[in-house]
Amino acid sequence: MMMDTRKEFNFVITEELEDWRIDKCLNTLMDSLSRSYIQKLVAEGEITVNGKCVKSSYRVSTDDEVRLLLPPSVTPDILPENIPLSILYEDSDVIVVNKPKGMVVHPAPGHLSGTLVNALMYHCGEELSGINGVLRPGIVHRIDRDTTGSIIACKNDRAHNEIARQLKEHTIVRRYQAIVHGSLKEEEGTVRTLIGRHHTDRKKMAVVSSGGKEAITHYKVLKHYKDYTFIECVLETGRTHQIRVHMAHLGHPLLGDEVYGPKTCPFRLQGQTLHAKILGFCHPATGEYVETDAPLPEYFLKLLKILQ
């Protein structure tokens, strides 16, 4: 007899989810699964409500018992690739890289090659921490695909645990530079909100009144331009899309950010103008403070000259 290796998830529907479509409901409860994939599972009979198969259009009721069987995932082979790296700091424990625009940090569906992980695997060989699994060797934190600048990776599990602890305790220094729409009224300030998934677009983050995680961003103006402002942001917390969400929340979205800002841009840009410039941390082995400074990319410098 063949063993069933599917993972089982069970949910009891609460009042706030009353009358939601089953696919939207499960996408909210398990945001790692897309609605299209959930619809596929419904069609294959892998999702039942009160013991019965339903259609994707089924609307849940309070106290419905939902059972989801998730087929085992197949982990693709991730291969080392000889991709040049701009290394800001490296020793036997950690490596800090100046990530270019357009590079995805770790492999994911649709991006199994050309990532920072592929490049690190070639450069570091097998000297990468394994805590985050085979898809994310060495990776402790991420920055968005179109955000440039400093990102740290770890070469062993001891270093990984220590850097992860510093991230959790918010002791790592992370200073970003960005260009935003409009002119900020205050020369500096702090944005303190909760950030969670957008209530209708699960691929976006948003400032929420409840159910999110605390997010704190400190900002200051570096220079005013006619229609834009050059700013520095210091992260006290590190939520997904934090700076992008917070600046949009203030009414000053990042230039080039088509997700949280205007859909059209007067300049030919690839995503948001956001750069992780300064990264400071206590070395996981020596305890000494290490700080790297990633120079602004060429496109960013040219843009500042145009705005001038």
Q: How would you describe this protein?
A:
- This protein has 308 residues and is of the alpha+beta class.
- It contains 6 helices and 14 strands.
- Strand 5 and strand 6 form a beta hairpin.
Spell out the blueprint of helices and strands.
Blueprint: E1 7-12, H1 22-29, H2 35-43, E2 47-49, E3 52-53, E4 65-70, E5 87-90, E6 94-99, H3 116-124, E7 148-154, H4 157-168, E8 173-181, E9 188-197, E10 205-208, E11 213-224, E12 228-235, H5 242-249, E13 274-282, E14 289-293, H6 298-307
Parallel strand pairs: 7-13
Antiparallel strand pairs: 1-4, 2-3, 2-4, 5-6, 6-7, 8-12, 8-13, 9-10, 9-11, 11-12, 13-14
Helix run count: 6
Elements, N to C (H/E): EHHEEEEEHEHEEEEEHEEH
Question: Would you tell me the overall average pLDDT?
Answer: 91
Shape: globular
Write a concise keyword list for the protein shown above:
alpha+beta, 4-stranded antiparallel β-sheet, 14 strands, globular
Question: What is shown here, in short?
Answer:
The protein has six helices and 14 strands. By secondary structure, it is of the alpha+beta class.
